[in-house]
Amino acid sequence: MARKTKDETEQTRLQIIAAARRVFAERGVSRTTLAEIAKEAGVTRGAIYWHFKNKPDLFFAMRDQISLPLIDAVEDGALTDKSADPLCAIGANMLEMLHLLESDEEVRTTFEIIALKCEYVDEFASLDNYVLKTCCAFIETITKAYEQAKKLHLLREGLDPGLCALESYTFMKGLIHLWLSDSDGAIIRDKARALIEAHIAVRRR
User: Fold this and answer.
1) I need a labelling partner for 122 at 20 to 30 A (CA). Which of 4, 29, 39, 195 fits?
2) Structural domains of the chain in order of their starting residue, each with its CATH number
């Protein structure tokens, strides 16, 4: 019975996150209330507070549900096999992010909320900086991959792995933002794969 209760509790938590994603996407984060999320999820506000301290806490749970698996995918692809080509692994992960944007509505909606539908004011005023800090894990993982590429003499001479990683992060953040904004596909969407391939190619020895 205890196991069933734990499973049901987790199901309710996931139900609340899914409802928050739908309401955030429709109304924007700052205009959304916990009461609206509770109604969408079919739970009480008390149920939300049982799982989340406040709206920012719920926002980050929604964000981490998508972003943390992507970070793990980079580490698995770029670092676990020391004989592999880390530059190919970094490029493959970038392409996988792009593929998920194209094919996975949950991923696409989450990135749309983060990039386009969250005003970092009032209770969210400090969150933009916090988002950047939480990306340090991603940057650190990419740095290790570039360091591995350097050890394998795959990285172009003179390039610093740390700066390469930071540049790759800013490149993908900008590319994703432009991709999401280019809803009719007139500017960036059909060129995104070529841009990723070029980004990796200029780093290769």
Assistant:
1) 39
2) 1-52 (1.10.10.60), 54-201 (1.10.357.10)
